[in-house]
Amino acid sequence: MSVAEKRTVHLRLMTAEDTERIVTWRNRDFVRKNFIYQELFTAEGHRAWIRDQVEPGHVVQFIIVLSDGREIGSVYFRDICREDGTAEYGIFIGEEDAVGRGYGTAAAVEALEYAFTRLGLERIFLRFLADNIGARKSYERAGFRMTRRRETVSTMQGEREVRFMEIDRKTWEAQAGSRVLRNGERYE
User: Alpha carbon of 153 to those of 26, 90, 145, 163: distances in Å?
Assistant: First the structure.
């Protein structure tokens, strides 16, 4: 079996036509409870996100697609600073039956390849709610490492700790050396 056949997910760039899907996924309770920002999303708000963040290049957002064509969630890089070579990574799996199956890790690996090879970034960080142990394990499998930085936020569930993780280009390249990398042509 070839590497391409073993691939469990691929990423396609999000478009405005994905607005309804994104809003539906992001508003599901099992997704919202793991986000720092837990307010309900609206189609209007998402269109503003596309206009104000995606179109000017501050954000690159993808839809996660399984090998059978099923779309299950989204990954994105936000606050892209080309001058510093940094961005924040985010992900959500919007189909509950797809949670905990390794798709998030696979999507993170794909997204990091894009960030370091296509966007030319030098460092990616992420934030997550500390009690989201599954997310932490997934991020670690994708190559992110914990930092010392912590914050506390108020959510619908009360005060919660936020932890930070990051990966830099050098670390990613060392890890990627053990993986067979695909070229950028796979991204739509």
Answer: 19, 17, 21, 11
